[in-house]
Amino acid sequence: MAAATVFNRNFSSLALVLAFNLAFALTSFTSPAEARGNGTAASYTVDPSSACPNGSAINGGRFLAMVQARAFNNGAACGRQYKISCIGGTNDVKEPCIKGKWVNVTVANLCSGDSCDTFTLSTDAFDVIAKHDAGRVQITYKRLH
Known about the structure:
Protein name: Expansin-like EG45 domain-containing protein
Keywords: Signal
InterPro entries: EGC1/2, Expansin/allergen_DPBB_dom, RlpA-like_DPBB, RlpA-like_sf
Low-confidence stretches: 11-29
Signal peptide: 1-35
Distance between the termini: 57 Å
Largest sheet: 6 strands, mixed, barrel
GO cellular component, one term: apoplast
Strand order of the largest sheet: 1-5-2-4-3-6
Oligomer: single chain
């Protein structure tokens, strides 16, 4: 009987550790909802309509970003600023990054759909960190506020 009690106690502890590790693994994927991380970025032409109040007017319509629904968080991300740098390509474009360049962007819209990148940057913002013809690049980012 004592052996069964020890087994159950050890099994319960193991189950708790495994559950914690699984929860950590499921929440450790980076998105702009987090303070920093890596991801991908593409560019877009700023549309006057926006999911954020005055979204397309922020920064004079320049240096803007759209984010995925998870990061957008029902509009809570509107106005958040991120510092973004290109770290590599995602296609055949040779040396797609403009080395050493960072751009500060403000979240101004929601990117809806299944093909959204971590950030979809206004053309002005994308062109600061990468060659325009790269189309899509790997990035690193950090939240400014």
